[in-house]
Amino acid sequence: MIPAFLSLVQVADPQGDPAFGPWFLATLIKMIGLFSVWMVGVAYMTLAERRVSAWIQDRRGPNRVGPHGLLQPIADGVKNIMKEETLPPYANRAIFFLAPMMSFAPAMMAWAVIPFGASWASRWGRIDMVFADLPIGFLFVLAITSLGVYGIVLAGWASNNKYALLGGLRSSAQMVSYEISMGLSLIPVLLLSGNVTLSEVVNSQASLHVWNALSLGVACFVFIAAAFAETNRLPFDLPEAESELITGYHTEYSAMKFSLFFIAEYANMITASAMIATLFFGGWDVPFTQADNTGAVAFPVVLLSMLIFALKVAFFLFLFIWIRWTLPRFRYDQLMSLGWKIFLPVSLAYIVIIAAMVLALDAAGIERGLVYGLILFGVNAVLLVILFVLLDRGRIVSPASVPVVGARLARLRQLAAARARLSAVEPR
Question: Which one of 29, 150, 164, 259 has the fewest beta carbons within 10 angstroms of its own beta carbon?
Fold first, then answer.
């Protein structure tokens, strides 16, 4: 038995595919390792959220449980596990219990195709730092993560609570509105890389020597904004809207089922940050070298690529938290208008422009390299100036915009001042 297993795990070519034994063992280690790091990261995202918000608001935040409050997530988890589970009297029991799991599982499944490091040239063969390098790539991620809305809608419906139902309906409308723009924003990435496999998207950015965030700036902006809406984060957290809907779709939930919705939110944040880093910011690519993009590399380079990827993901997680404690919430009409009247036509027009640019540059014989990327960067810089400086000027995209013209606003201010003067001279 043992000699048979040892013969199974021996491979002569480090650049080739490993035998079944090393492949299975490496996959098992990757699953256990990444899932453990991911779950710990999700738990400690709650602590990061509270500490960063405290830093922004000039207060201390959690600092009593463990050194510097590092054991606070463990204390919160134990508290939620020990709490009593409640069930509304007229709830649909099966769907009520199923909804939190349906909200959490898609974010975890999306990591099956996200590469988190360069390929390792091990003594047993080439081991890719991805669970399944599927040829459908980010299409799989879009399809799987879109299933998360079913957990939210079913939670609102199964609770038999009108506030929870309104939160679920809001969430479904919001998800549908911004999933379209998110999908359309990835078509320019497909046009530029020629492949939907996420590892090939990373390699295409390395070959251009320019991140897609620079060569496809408009698509990057739309995708990031849509990612905020998909994760129900401020300024797009209308499904929760505490001041309007109590706590929204999870009003009737308690204990660990209630916590699972928040765990799902932070899990979606990590998945969205990984997708942003992979699609538009070079992913795990080690800068100033092409060795990691052409084949398997030594293990120290693999560790370096994983560290680079982790730092990029951490930056976007900080961005999610920073935006939440900085910007106000959209009104519901502003949210829907932004998705259908702004992002959708901008995404469609941008696809046409990028397709024309790619066709023109290929027809001109310009190779996919630094010059190619710099030309696309210049075009996108012009488009961003047109979009934000000439067309918008703080009136459309800005959530704080006033929906009246300047003359009308001046007239309203004059009327308010006149009423104030009249009230001041009236006898009491």
Answer: 29
